């Protein structure tokens, strides 16, 4: 059990107020009035305000600092979550278009780096949540096992190049885990933000990874979200990676799973930063010159893209290789989110070449 689990909402709030770290979105929007309004509410799956704010109060250096205890938290705790969502996604109004994946037979883009010199690999993921279960803070071990069973049954219906095998984390050897993590396939239990939010309760029970035979399509089961669908391959062919993901989403949506959604928020996820399309399209790209520029972060912000280290969120870059992805997921369609990333990566490549004098 995480350290903060023993504290109630008032104790957590007092800790947050006393913290001196730069302001998280939680700290900014959990005003005394919002706290008073939400402190005694309970959501459909019996989640509380403490469940939503525990991670951000125990980790005052959070950027966001709040998680939804279950899909219904977006209604019950809207007084807190709505301002956080608007602030993170930089929107004045909460609205989200219907899913639109574009015409994958006619995308108008393919390989973003035909020379093969800069982009190491390309990945696109979406998150999905089962409508009938809560999120980590309210889940029991039985819930996780049940969800895993239902999910695996549907994954087994995937066909052609998407067909594959499910590997539960329970019973997986340490060596195999280390190998899959180093190859950027597998998740682990090392994120202190997620841990404090209950994300590693009963670890590793109910978690696992599904691989298509060619390892270019995978599904994470019960990592941060109930489901993460991931399409990835070496090199810069975003067209192929995205097309494969869309095919998988369409097959899985018609396989009997019911995903949590809300009109103005799109697909519901554990973290408010992933709502909407839930789509993060990224490349690992070598940009030593651009990354050394003092205005690198602003360059990325202006293009609505984000640079991370290559071993996941909150990690550092290695050898000038960065993970570049779209930042916005809400208030735009899936194809628009991918196009935003594509345009950003193209601008990054152009600038790196200019700086390198090529
Ligand atoms: N809760 C963490 C924070 O506020 C992570 C937020 C976004 N990342 C994520 N994996 N959901 O900094």
TrEMBL record:
It holds the Pfam family ATP-gua_Ptrans. GO terms for biological process: phosphocreatine biosynthetic process. Residues 118-355 form the Phosphagen kinase C-terminal domain. Residues 8-90 form the Phosphagen kinase N-terminal domain. The lineage of its organism: Eukaryota, Metazoa, Spiralia, Lophotrochozoa, Mollusca. GO terms for molecular function: arginine kinase activity; ATP binding; creatine kinase activity. The keyword Kinase applies. It comes from the Eukaryota. One of its GO terms (cellular component) is extracellular space. The keyword Nucleotide-binding applies. Keywords: ATP-binding, Kinase, Nucleotide-binding, Transferase. This is Arginine kinase. ATP binds at residues 121-125, 184, 228, 280-284, 308-313. Belongs to the ATP:guanido phosphotransferase family.
């Amino acid at each position: 059990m995480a350290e903060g689990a023993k504290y109630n909402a008032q104790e957590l709030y007092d800790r947050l107020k006393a913290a001196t770290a730069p302001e998280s979105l939680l700290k900014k929007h959990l005003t005394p009035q919002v706290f008073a309004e939400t402190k005694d509410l309970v959501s459909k799956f019996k989640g509380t305000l403490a469940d939503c704010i525990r991670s951000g109060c125990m980790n005052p250096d959070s950027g966001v600092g709040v998680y939804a205890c279950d899909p219904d938290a977006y209604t019950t705790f809207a007084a807190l979550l709505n301002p956080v969502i608007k602030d993170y996604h930089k929107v004045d109004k909460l609205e989200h278009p219907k899913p639109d994946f574009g015409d994958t037979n006619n995308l108008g883009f393919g390989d973003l780096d035909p020379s093969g010199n800069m982009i190491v690999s390309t990945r696109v993921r979406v998150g999905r949540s089962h409508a009938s279960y809560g999120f980590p803070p309210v889940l029991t071990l039985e819930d996780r096992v049940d969800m895993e069973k239902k999910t695996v049954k549907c994954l087994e219906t995937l066909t052609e190049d998407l067909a594959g095998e499910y590997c539960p984390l329970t019973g997986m050897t340490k060596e195999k885990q280390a190998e899959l993590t180093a190859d950027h396939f597998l998740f682990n239990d090392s994120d202190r933000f997620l841990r404090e939010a209950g994300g590693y309760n009963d670890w590793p029970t109910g978690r696992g990874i599904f691989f298509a035979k060619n390892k270019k399509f995978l599904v994470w089961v019960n990592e941060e979200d109930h489901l993460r669908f991931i399409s990835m391959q070496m090199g810069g062919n975003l067209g192929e990676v995205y097309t494969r993901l869309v095919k998988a989403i369409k097959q899985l949506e018609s396989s009997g799973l019911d995903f949590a959604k809300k009109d103005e928020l799109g697909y519901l996820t554990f973290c408010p930063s992933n709502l909407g399309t839930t789509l993060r399209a990224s490349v690992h790209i070598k940009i030593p010159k651009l990354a050394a520029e003092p205005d690198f972060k602003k360059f990325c912000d202006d293009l609505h893209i984000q640079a991370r280290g290559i071993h996941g969120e909150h990690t550092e870059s290695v050898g000038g290789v960065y993970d570049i992805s779209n930042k916005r997921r809400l208030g735009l369609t899936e194809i628009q989110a991918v196009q935003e990333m594509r345009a950003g990566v193209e601008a990054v490549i152009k600038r790196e070449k200019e700086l390198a004098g090529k």
